Amino acid sequence: MLSVIPNPPRTALPIHGTQDLFPVRRVYCVGRNYAAHAREMGADPTREPPFFFMKPADALQVVPAGETVAHPYPPKTANYHHEIELVVALGQSGRDIPVARALEHVYGYAVGLDMTRRDLQDEAKALRRPWELGKSADASGPVGVLQPASAIGHPERGTIALTVDGAVRQKADLSDMIWSVAEQIAYLSAYFALEPGDVIFAGTPEGVGAVARGQTLVGSIEGVGEIRLAVG
């Protein structure tokens, strides 16, 4: 049996220190997971249950180590925002995973950006519509090289930051998360059968803002890595 169209390529992330790849299955993103960011978005930062949205796997943009990658400015927006995030790659399947066992399911971590057409997202919020037009643009999920948890452990503290043309826009600590990585995995696993290849964007700190064509973004997470993008 043959496919009636060419098989679409599968997004895969590079793994530090090897030629191996991590194929991506699904992409889950948690919203408002840092208190200061929740406040800047006009929300209550209390510890209410987390909420998630999704990006298509082919919206991820691979950013190789040491390279500055051209990042396309998407159409139909005049307010395109950066959101620096810890990316969590799952290597084991599970359902109803207890928090105490959740990190056993993590293959590794990377630096990522949840790029957002904020004007379209704000419009969707006001109309009580889904967020896909704002959150799922082509290349809207730049991700760097995966660091296996077997090599770096499970980062719970460390600076997470983003600069635009050298000026600091976002800076916080991973310990500022409202919901930890383990808690996010446990929560998601009550609603979905998580599988190897699933990826979680673990939330962004305060300081999100617009980018313009021609600007250079540098995102970094202490102990995890760095990614560089040239917008436009």
TrEMBL record:
Keywords: Hydrolase, Metal-binding. GO terms for molecular function: hydrolase activity. The keyword Transcription does not apply. It comes from the Bacteria. Residues 27-230 form the Fumarylacetoacetase-like C-terminal domain. Pfam families: FAA_hydrolase. The keyword Protease does not apply. InterPro entries: Fumarylacetoacetase-like_C, Fumarylacetoacetase_C_sf. This is Fumarylpyruvate hydrolase. It comes from Methylobacterium crusticola. The gene is nagK.
